[in-house]
Amino acid sequence: MSKANPLESTPSAVGAIRTLLALALALGLLVLPGCSDLGGGGGELTVSLQDGIGSGLGGAGFEGELRTVVMAEVQDDFGFWAEVTGSPQQVNLPVGESDTVVEFGRRTLASGTYTRMRLVFTQVEAHLTDAPPGFEMPSDGVVQVVFSTGDRTTVERPATLFIDSDQDAEVIFTLNSGQWLPSGEDGTVTAQSFRSAVTIDIP
Fold it and tell me: What is the pLDDT of residue 45?
């Protein structure tokens, strides 16, 4: 009597393996657009920060330096989020100067459509050297954005981005300190005031 070869697959086993492989491939294709930075004819996404006085003239007259620690993420049209920076980045900007743009994140993404951007701030401080009349300058010149919960605050904005091998994308966030600095009291600004002032631009 011949013995069955344990390495020989039965038709039902082959069918099951093919089904599992097909399922894994399908899942891989779903995740690929938002999470891969390898091949696939993708393009680059760059993310930058700048400051500005925002709308109106209420924020004019502040001088100094904004000091932030920030991470960036992007969401594809399947709802998956991918990190752009990989780790927190220190970004310093001159207060109120919109002509200084600092790139802090760059990543190659798979071809596809991306629909939202998210910034996660773990530090936002304005180190002021001058302020407009009527503003109560802290003794150390530091105005800090206070996070209401935890050790961070998150800013999300819609952003329609199309990325492929022939088309990269750039996103610039403007912090508009001139809109939230005037609300500072005792050296602090609420996270809500800060978040509501941040705008996004896709050149």
Answer: 98
